[in-house]
Amino acid sequence: MIAAGGTVAVPTETVYGLAARADSAAAVAAIYRAKGRPDFNPLIVHVPDVAAAEALAVFDARALALAAAFWPGPLTMVLPRRAQVPLAAAVSAGLPTVALRVPAHPVMRALLAASGLPLAAPSANRSGGVSPTSAAHVAASLGVRADLIMDGGTTQQGLESTIVALREGGGWQILRPGPIPEADLVAVLGEAATQERRGIEAPGQLASHYAPGKPVRLGAESAEAGEFLIGFGPVPGAVSLSEAGDLAEAAARLYACLHLAAAAPEPRIAVAPIPPRGIGVAINDRLGRAAV
After folding, report:
1. pLDDT per position as a tens digit, 5-60
2. Which residue among 9, 122, 154, 241 has its CA within the 20 to 30 Å range from the CA of 22?
3. Domain definitions of the chain by residue range
4. What is the residue-wise DSSP string for 150-211?
């Protein structure tokens, strides 16, 4: 299916991705068409190893250090795209950069190995909606818009990868918080991230994103009339991100709970407070965009 230019929903350690060969403009267009995705929103290109990534982008010492520390894994790097590389222009959405990741999930790694191709793979759901952490979520969101769905069970991390842009002159910036927190990146790069603001450079930067299709109220200590409450820690709810208050468990369950809330009869959703530390920063980022 990949070789023929089709789209395949495949699990990664973060969420399910809708993969297609990144060297084909027609295949990449099929991703945008299936998702209803804005064409100014770049795609992440997945490759099997650092050597394959270096063939597509310019790596400096910082990029090599990050790759050594976090690849394979849930880190995406936005790097200068090499000239004349066999990538469809649409994966970069007209930018001189490319977003690259070496995933860790055995199913995605097997698909990369079998195809021998770089694979563009945004989350396998309709654009702007709640990301999928199971094959059932993919089927409910995309249905026949995906040519094939590979069921690899529930994803482990449950949040999309951390995206880091390495700037000229030594600066760097987190474009999307994720499973790898800023402190871990600072430990490798040795300096704090910049707060520079540019346009859309990577997935997950749109103000409204991960939306369940209902109004969402954050920081709720209890449910109001007509609300489906997603609990956390001491705040009970119709479902709980983590009754033990474990942020890693909350991240893994976030999208599954939002899917349940979207399907519930209540017209509105409330979410208990989430501490803004560690991966809680990424959880609050997704919730804030879901609530817009």
Report:
1. 999 999 999 999 999 999 999 999 899 889 986 666 789 999 999 999 999 999 99
2. 154
3. 8-189, 216-290
4. ----S-SS-SPPEEEEEPGGG-EEEEE--SS-HHHHHHHH-SPPP----S--STT-SSS-SB
Q: CA separation (Å) from 211 to 83, 85, 101?
A: 36, 35, 25
Per CATH, domain 8-189 is 3.90.870.10: yes
Count the alpha carbons within 13 Å of 22 in the hemisphere toward its beta carbon: 29
How many Å from the N-terminal Cα to the C-terminal Cα in the chain? Answer: 36
Per-residue pLDDT tens digits for 268-290: 999 999 999 999 999 999 999 89
Q: Which residue has the higher pLDDT, 211 or 123?
A: 123
Whether cis (ω within 30° of 0) applies to the bond prior to 72 is: yes
Q: What are the backbone angles phi and psi of residue 261, rounded to the nearest 5°?
A: -65, -40
Residue partners of 223: CB distance under 8 A and separation at least 6: 229, 237, 238, 270
Q: Are strands 162-166 and 119-120 parallel, antiparallel or unpaired?
A: unpaired
